[in-house]
Amino acid sequence: MNAFASTTPRRAFELYPAIDVRDGRVVRLHQGDYERETRYAPSPIELASQYAESGAGWLHLVDLDAAREGGYTLRALVREVVTHTGLNVQTGGGVRSEDDVALILDAGARRVVVGSLAVRETERVLGWIARFGADRITVALDARQDASGAWRLPTAGWTQDSGVELETLVRRFADGGLRHLLCTDIARDGMLAGPNLALYRHLSNLAPELSVQASGGVRDVDDIEGARDAGCAGAVLGKALIEGRFALEDAMRRTQRC
């Protein structure tokens, strides 16, 4: 039997169209590099409205300015998206404090995404899960596999080794009440090389109680179905979706059927 085979029963599968915002515009960064940016024509609210009209239930919204400088800046956009589209918003970038979490949720977001801080200050983030509830926090872990095969968690824009291994931190959060985990294989991010299905099968076995969101590498609907079949509870759709490599309606139809 494959060591990565998932024994987790299939659960409801969610699609999370992603919008990354920098200087008020929709952009994508190549491998997280702020010097390698692609801009897209629609405004964030126009693109969110398009996704809602296509049947999306969720939006994954990233504040790239805050991710670099701190101080989440998209609360007004969250309110506008929720009011005008009805989308459930999962959002993060620059979340540094409990007050940040409270303000983002007060703006109408359903979930706040916490990234590097979850690696650096795990106990603090576990406290937020206890205060706000397991359904209001998504922990986002960006992982890179080293030469020995271990999954490491770099921070500071993927430039510093935190010394923390993915499996250790995932189990710590699962034991501490986390429900939603977003995991990105750094090597696949923005590369249209396909998601790392072996990684997601591994996570499904390691912590079957978590709802794991696949992120990075999705090229087409087959990749999304692969993530679902690997045990993921959802997939974040970035570059391939915004560039029209597949239709959101098709992805929803194929991944949400039995």
Automatic annotation (TrEMBL):
This is 1-(5-phosphoribosyl)-5-[(5-phosphoribosylamino)methylideneamino] imidazole-4-carboxamide isomerase. Belongs to the HisA/HisF family. Its EC number is 5.3.1.16. The active site is at 20 (proton acceptor), 142 (proton donor). InterPro entries: Aldolase_TIM (IPR013785), His_biosynth (IPR006062), HisA/PriA (IPR023016), HisA_bact_arch (IPR006063), Isoase_HisA-like (IPR044524), RibuloseP-bd_barrel (IPR011060). NCBIfam families: 1-(5-phosphoribosyl)-5-[(5-phosphoribosylamino)methylideneamino]imidazole-4-carboxamide isomerase. It is found in: Cytoplasm. The lineage of its organism: Bacteria, Pseudomonadati, Pseudomonadota, Gammaproteobacteria, Lysobacterales. CDD domains: HisA. GO terms for molecular function: isomerase activity. Pathway: Amino-acid biosynthesis; L-histidine biosynthesis; L-histidine from 5-phospho-alpha-D-ribose 1-diphosphate: step 4/9.
